[in-house]
Amino acid sequence: MNTPQDSDLAGFKEAVRREWADSETVRAWRKWHLFFARQSAAATVAIVEAAQVGPGMDVLDLASGTGEPALTLARLVGPAGHVTATDLVPEMLAIAAETARQQGLGNLTCQVADAEDLPFAAARFDAVTCRLGVMFFPNYAQALRETYRVLKPGGRAAFLAWGPFDQPFFTSTAGIVMQYSAMPAPAPGTPGRFRFAEEGTLAAALRDAGFQEVRETRLNIPWPSGSVAEAWESTRDMRAPFRHLLSSLPQDERDRVQAAIYAAIHQYETGGEVVFPVVMALVSGRNG
Q1: Residue 107 is part of which domain span?
Q2: pTM above 0.85?
Q3: Average pLDDT of the chain?
């Protein structure tokens, strides 16, 4: 897999941080984060199981965003355990911390941290998770080495990444937007949702970082998304590129885009609930 030059990494990292720290994006995630937690519940269950997390464990969650799977992990490890939720964007972590307080999860700590330079001692954690975040690490190889460093011998790390673009959740939304306004494709090796879409690429990256017993599974899971309107509005609101592309279109074109998207999403609606079948890559590995 091609990787960016070192001189580009800082720029990529700043671009990722800006996208997720955008005030409109943060407001949207605050509005939809509980909806997204329900929507992605099957993905959370899968990664928690892959990391082999149990009561009393000390767990690190990378790229926690607004709180999942860290919140679920905190309930699982119980009062004898602890979860550290990390992210590069403090505005997102603030939502996670607020939710933890509301749910009475005193065993969850939120800490701003760069996955490529983790501020933790070696062999600190029993398990590490990262759900839909590893694709955005500019120097993912360094982030995986750091994950290996802070993981106790025998502990497992689990990563979840999006599968290919060619699946209903994307073709029914982004695919239609792209018919009206070109969305530039990221250069090979640069941060983006589909960086590890090719089967085996994330598993190879874990092996290169030193992980043993690397396992990769292609998950086919349900992605419940509410009504047709909620399915589109949540996706549009939480994805800054969609908002920016749509805002650049004349109103009549925006109306046509939305009508086409609603028609495409409606194919996956049953009994008033849209449920997309989604494909993800679940990869885990052991330290030593």
Answers
A1: 6-164+190-224+278-286
A2: yes
A3: 92
